[in-house]
Amino acid sequence: MDLATSPLFERLQRADHVLLAGAGGGFDIYCGLPLYFRLREMGKRVSLANLSFTVLDRVDGRVVAPGLMEVRAETQGPAHYFPEGVLARWFQARGESVSIYCFDKVGVAPLSAAWAALQTELGFDTVVLVDGGTDILMRGDEAGLGTPEEDVSSLAAVDSLTLRDKLIVCLGFGVDAFHGICHAHYLEAVADLSRRGAYLGVTALLPGMPEVDRYREAVMFSSEEMARRPSIVSLSVVGAIDGDYGDQHRTSRTQGSKLFINPLMSMYWAFDLDAVARRCLYLEPLRDTTTSWEVSARIETFRARHPTKPWEDIPV
Known about the structure:
By secondary structure, this protein is α/β, with parallel strands linked by helices. It has helices at residues 7-12, 33-41, 83-93, 108-122, 148-159, 183-195, 210-225, 232-242, 273-279, 292-305, and strands spanning 17-22, 45-51, 62-65, 68-71, 100-103, 126-132, 165-171, 199-204, 267-272.
């Protein structure tokens, strides 16, 4: 490894079939699109999945397994909120037919079974979990965990699989401040993972990169299609890519809050998934959960029984 190499892409170079999956639900899979297009240019087979906030009982897609559905451009779902269906339609508008596999928002045990079913269905050998934000790195004793239920459920499910490689990328440094993440504790987590040899560096998303321009197009398309509930994270990232700085808002959804749009927001931070899973203090108690409510309850119980670090500002 030297300055001319990317540890993230060195790892991905070994893959034959990569599954990019949104870890935290909602629009997280959009944050993986620059990687999707880059990997295809590298000649890799790439599939897309997302932990879905859409009520899948109201979607007419093909049921692959319990809690797992294939969504395509023609798939009908709720008109007001269906990020995966909108993304499939964006691909169709580009002349491509792309499936997005949707995981239901459930506990870790059924989610792990759905992940295993998708591995059997597709045969991928590598997974990249994509977090729109940074809270997937919180191990449990930080001042705030953000919205950890979906991220840690995805982390546990992928950790249970046998694969050639498992990776995590975070996009949107600073966006989780709205949900109470202490970014000094995030940087502490990065440092800890670096000591473990599990930090794979950063990759900047820059204007003019074809992969980044396509990501921007998809985000703006989804913002028009779902004008009442556009992606806060991806609009913030797009703003950072375009050079916005500070308290600048691209959607009325963030009005009334103070944003910190910054250049670090438009960088992929990459990590070894196994190391992130081993570092998480509350992962094991979640493995036999069956519902998302049970996941939330056990996280609350963990937090009540363990001391947490005081808030820390970044001293620069």
